Amino acid sequence: MFRNRTPLTFLGSFFALVIVGSPPAAAQGQVIQSESHNFRVVTVAEGLDGPWSIAFLPEGDLLVTERSGALRIVRNGTLVPKPVEGVPAVRFGGQGGLLDVVLHPEFESNRLVYLTYSKPSADGSEGTTAVVRGRLENDRLNGVEEIFEASAWSPGQGHYGSRLAFDHDGYLFVSIGDRQAPARDDLFAHPAQDVSNHIGTILRLHDDGTVPADNPFVGRPDAMPEIWSYGHRSPQGLAVHPVTGALWESEHGPQGGDELNLIEPALNYGWPVIGFGVNYGSGAPIHESSEHEDMEQPIHHWTPSIATSGLMIYTGDAFPNWQGDFFVGGLAGQQVARVTLDGTEFVSEETLLAGYGRIRDVRQGPDGFIYLAIDPARGAAAGPTPIVRLEPAN
Q1: Assessment of whether the complete model's pTM goes beyond 0.85
Q2: Catalytic positions
Q3: What are the pLDDT digits (tens) for 182-196?
Q4: Dihedral, CA atoms, 183, 189, 195, 199, nearest 10 degrees?
Q5: Which of 17, 90, 161, 236 gets the most CB atoms within 10 Å of its CB?
């Protein structure tokens, strides 16, 4: 049961230690004060090449995707030197590569691991988002099969989306970005507003990639039957609420207008017709307005943008006062935001880390600690980056 809270009288409170311009090592061992818990940042594994996502195996190992194309194992605090075999070749570059990793809900019996990646066309000139699954046995993936390929091909290398989440009924949700399709002229004609393709959508599949018969667009000849919701820009976080079972998504806006959305079937989330951002650099308007009939409003938005990434809803015992809170990684913001809701109403936001590096993924471990995958800070020299975790400082 999550704790009830009295809403704060102020929003966006900032109690965290700010480590602007410093590498993650600067905070190692320091006690960082926050509104409800003090914590330390502890390194879990080093030497990873752009870690994108984390999954926890029941025997205690960590699976980590590296965007350059390798699936890695962290065992007893050490990165296993040899990558997992059986991973498909990826179209690496820009925002593309090997992306999300999740375990099947019945992993202990079937050993199924699901991966998303940017799939190259036959000549390598284009890419799209694809989902594969295979059985993890003896540190390799066996029987790897593609279960989904998005109708979202583009020569560009951005906005693949690519997050995965299983709900309580075993359905698999997949996020697909808008592939950076330009938002200009007739905004209603943008491909993210067109359900005849997968661009800018959240999808719902059976665990084998087939389409559930009760998906909202099944039977419509002008629509892709996998679509659950549409009108998304760059969905970088996806999480199923552990109590309510509701699906939540975090989404990059352009220059401003990042969103936290409650995802419901058949609904239109508005990109690019509505939103709170502007064009990069020029600051010129993009949207028709910030709201429109029959288009959904975010539960919370970030303006200026923090470039939202991984999304997690906390249930652990290590930080009891955070139970039920939403944790959102920030890339441009180089931060972790803790968002408190009352049901579906925004209450408050606290920045737990800032200037710490590009937080790519946020996951809760079996130990109740909060794990972060970190990219190099923008402008920093390329090189290995770590997995770290937040531990209570009692």
Answers
A1: yes
A2: 159
A3: 998 999 999 999 999
A4: -20
A5: 161
